[in-house]
């Protein structure tokens, strides 16, 4: 049975305006979230004056709480039934709270001791966990409800990832320069004004996404209970594989983002060079644009494995050419292109695991499955991506604002360069087992459309 748009609107082709608007969601998310994932550890240690071990522990504990909140967000989405859909209304409801919460996270009030730690932990959980997790959950959960057409899903996800990378590029490239410019020597003031600016833009983008995106795939008006959401995971092996691989992958991603500042400041002698590293994340657009074509030639699993291999090669090459900054940047760029391939694919593939769960169990739980598969993995992986290297630094004797010992410099290099290579190898070993389930997808989607047609005829 073919996925025919005329026979079933759920198989619709998506207008370009809608794909662009869908891209706005992750552009908005990354304007603020990448500010946190890239600079919060640096902000805590070098601006808010929290010891590196304490800062790493705050981020880890907060990320665990945030990851657990993703499970609840998924259930909330599956219980949401409005005239706007299940996921779409949250772009409206969370846009302004997201901006305010992130601003509070990058505020440095005159607190001391336990009060300072509690403030940092509470605001980070509020912004990165409760609010951003809700946005991240709905960005991913809405994809399987836009259309059942596999090609359109890949296309929409590619637009999304381009938006994501543009958001990352803007915040990664301009955060530190704007902090210096707007703060005029006062980093606290600089971060406050910079995040305020990003927050206004992010809120506007989310509101535009709410206006233009539509959910088409029929969803039962009966709320999916948490128990039935769990049933959608029973036997859902492709979902198990993606959740495991993506959570581990985000350890590397968060590590690369957060430690570029340390590598630039302490190993290269100029913290502003972090903007060069992070700004080059925009090269991932090459990957996002190429993905639909690469998937047609190979498949989704192979595309992700290719990305991991290129990413690992770029990271390893940085170590080989470490004495030449230009060659380091070229190697980093290769790694960015590869990691962007690898990062993009799970978001699209999660939509297929929603279909698999419904096909296997009879329960469609896009909110729960994609929340755990995206927001949960990102939060958990990001927490460990800051915690693990922070412990490595602490063990090596790192002290902020000082010239580092050879041991501390080596620890920074290992965390920034080699730790991601090790993680990419682990992720690749997991994803090899996904090939089997990707081959089943066309039949699964045909069966689901046939079931929907039978239900409609019976009614």
Summarize the structure.
GO terms for molecular function: symporter activity. The chain is an all-alpha fold and 459 residues long. The chain is built from 18 helices and no strands.
Provide tags for this entry.
mainly alpha; 18 helices; 78% helix; disordered N terminus
The CATH superfamily is known as MFS general substrate transporter like domains
- Name the shape in a single word: globular
Biggest sheet descriptor:
none
* CATH 2nd-level architecture: Up-down Bundle
Name the poorly predicted regions: 1-7
Determine the mean pLDDT: 86
The helix content is: over 70%
Domains, number: 1
**What class do helices, strands and sheet pairing give?**
mainly alpha
Distance between the termini: 21 Å
Strand proportion, as a percent range, falls in: under 5%
Number of E strands: 0
Number of helical stretches of at least 4 residues: 18
Q: What top-tier CATH class fits best?
A: Mainly Alpha
Radius of gyration: 21 Å
């Amino acid at each position: 049975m073919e996925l025919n748009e005329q026979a079933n609107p759920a198989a619709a082709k998506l207008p370009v305006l809608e794909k662009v608007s869908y891209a706005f969601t992750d552009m908005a998310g990354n304007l603020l979230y990448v500010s946190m994932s890239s600079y919060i550890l640096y902000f805590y240690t070098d601006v808010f004056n929290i010891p590196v071990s304490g800062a790493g522990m705050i981020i880890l504990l907060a990320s665990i709480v945030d990851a657990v909140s993703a499970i609840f967000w998924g259930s909330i989405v599956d219980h949401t039934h409005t005239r706007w859909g299940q996921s779409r209304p949250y772009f409206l409801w969370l846009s302004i709270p997201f901006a305010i919460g992130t601003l509070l996270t990058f505020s440095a009030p005159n607190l001391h001791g336990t009060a300072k730690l509690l403030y940092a932990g509470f605001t980070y959980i509020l912004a990165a966990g409760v609010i951003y997790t809700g946005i991240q959950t709905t960005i991913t959960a809405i994809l399987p409800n836009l259309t059942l057409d596999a090609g359109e899903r890949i296309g929409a996800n590619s637009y999304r990832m381009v938006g994501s990378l543009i958001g990352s590029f803007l915040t990664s490239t301009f955060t530190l320069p704007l902090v210096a410019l707007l703060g005029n020597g006062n980093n606290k003031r600089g971060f406050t004004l910079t995040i305020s600016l990003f927050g206004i833009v992010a809120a506007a983008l989310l509101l535009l996404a709410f206006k233009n995106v539509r959910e088409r795939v029929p969803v039962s008006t009966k709320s999916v209970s948490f128990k039935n959401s769990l049933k959608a995971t029973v036997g859902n092996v492709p979902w198990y594989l993606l959740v495991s691989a993506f959570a581990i992958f985000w350890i590397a991603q968060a590590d690369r983002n957060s430690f570029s500042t340390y590598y630039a400041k302490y190993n290269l002698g100029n913290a502003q060079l972090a903007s060069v590293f992070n700004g080059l994340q925009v090269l991932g657009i090459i990957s996002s644009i190429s993905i639909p074509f690469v998937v047609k030639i190979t498949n989704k699993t192979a595309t992700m494995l290719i990305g991991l291999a290129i990413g690992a090669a770029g990271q390893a090459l940085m170590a080989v050419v470490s004495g030449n900054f230009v060659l380091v940047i070229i190697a980093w760029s290769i790694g960015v292109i590869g990691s962007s391939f690898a990062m993009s694919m799970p978001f699209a593939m999660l939509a297929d695991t929603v279909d698999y769960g419904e096909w296997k169990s009879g329960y469609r739980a896009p909110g729960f499955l994609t929340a755990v598969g995206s927001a949960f993995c990102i939060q958990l992986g990001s927490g460990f991506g800051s915690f693990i290297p922070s412990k490595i630094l602490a063990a090596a004797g790192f002290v902020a604002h000082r010239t580092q010992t050879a041991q501390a410099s080596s620890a920074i290099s290992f965390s920034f360069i080699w730790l991601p290579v090790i993680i990419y190898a682990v992720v690749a070993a997991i994803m090899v087992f996904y090939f089997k389930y990707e081959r089943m997808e066309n039949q699964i989607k045909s069966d689901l459309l046939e079931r929907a047609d039978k239900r409609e005829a019976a009614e």
